[in-house]
From TrEMBL:
Gene Ontology MF term list: ATP binding; ATP hydrolysis activity
Family: Belongs to the ABC transporter superfamily.
Stored InterPro entries: AAA+_ATPase, ABC_transporter-like_ATP-bd, ABC_transporter-like_CS, P-loop_NTPase
UniProt entry keywords in alphabetical sequence: ATP-binding, Nucleotide-binding, Transport
Residues of the ABC transporter domain: 4-239
UniProt protein name: Histidinol phosphatase
Any Pfam family matching the protein: ABC_tran
Length: 259
């Protein structure tokens, strides 16, 4: 497990002439924590995640993993410690499920080093964990969106990361697999930072939440502390009823349409 610390982060497009898309962002993921990032479309969620996994280089502030400045380390150093699952599906070039998951072992291999028994075991374990072992020899391309998402999570797990970063991990999944995936992530107890559109899922599974809007963090805390009707109205511009879930100790949100 790893800890992520972001302090005073600012970022804008590479030409430097556009407005700041992120400014003054502070965010922390402790060891074994499941942290959610919520906010409306265009609020800066994906841009912030890209800074956290060393894709967008910040113009201000710092990103540290286990006390080490991420941008003072090599891409290989980062890839051994951070695994990322994005919304978009990769160009798989005819790969089988097994071959795609095996790509998660790349950061641990030398330039001309082939796969060994340990690599095979890691791939098999990852596929078992996400319930896709039965499809290991199938091609990736014709899988359903939900199956692809689970295979990509398996690739991330095969990478043996200390930190998982997920951009809308439940986006392509039906309700059953949404719950199964998030339950799996909770059981793993890996340090995890994930963006969510579905606030009820974020409330049910995240230890803490950060609310981002206009490139700035507006609030952070437990789901009970963050998810108030007033804040949801402020950030999303929609009325909501927020109460306690009848079967669990987390908030439940019901969106209320205007008359």
């Amino acid at each position: 497990m790893a800890s992520l610390l972001i302090r005073g982060l600012g970022w804008r497009a590479s030409d430097g002439a556009r407005p700041w898309l992120l400014r003054g962002v502070d965010l922390e993921v402790g060891e074994g924590e499941f942290v959610g990032l919520i906010g409306p479309n265009g609020s800066g969620k994906t841009s912030l995640l890209r800074c956290a996994y060393r894709f967008n280089r910040p113009d201000e502030g710092s990103v540290s993993l286990d006390g080490s400045d991420l941008w003072r380390q090599s891409p290989r150093w980062s890839a051994r410690r951070i695994a990322v699952v994005l919304q978009e599906f990769p160009q798989e070039f005819g790969l089988s499920v097994e071959a795609l998951v095996a790509m998660g072992r790349t950061p641990h291999k030398g330039l001309f080093e082939g796969d060994d028994r340990e690599d095979g075991e890691r791939v098999s374990q990852a596929l078992e964990r996400v319930g896709m072992a039965h499809a290991r020899l199938r091609p990736f391309a014709p899988l359903s969106g939900g199956e692809k998402q689970r295979v990509l999570l398996a690739r991330a797990l095969a990478q043996q990361p200390g930190l998982l970063i997920l951009d809308e991990p439940t986006n392509h999944l039906d309700p059953r697999y949404q719950l199964e995936l998030l339950q799996l992530l909770r059981k793993l107890r890996l340090s995890t930072l994930a963006s969510f559109h579905d606030l009820n899922l974020a409330a049910a599974f995240c230890d803490r939440l950060y609310v981002i809007d206009g490139g700035r963090i507006l609030a952070s805390g437990t789901p009970h502390e963050v998810l108030s009707a007033e804040r949801l109205q402020q950030v999303f511009g929609v009325h909501a009823l927020v109460d306690r879930h009848p079967l669990a100790d987390h908030p439940r949100i019901t969106w209320v349409s205007s008359p």
